[in-house]
Amino acid sequence: MTDSVATPAPPHPLLAATGVRKVYRTGSVEVTALRGLDLTVERGELVGVMGPSGSGKTTLLNCLSGLDDIDGGLVEVDGRDLFAMSDAERTEHRARTMGFVFQAFNLIPVFSAAENVELPLLLVGTAPREARARAVEMLGRVGLGHRVGHRPSELSGGEQQRVTIARALVARPAVVWADEPTGNLDSAMADQVMDLLRTLNRDEGQTIVLVTHDEAIGRRLPRLVRMRDGRLVADTARAAAVG
Ligand SMILES: Nc1ncnc2c1ncn2[C@@H]1O[C@H](COP(=O)(O)OP(=O)(O)OP(=O)(O)O)[C@@H](O)[C@H]1O
Question: Is residue 183 in contact with ligand 1, taking CB distance under 6 Å?
Answer without folding.
Answer: no
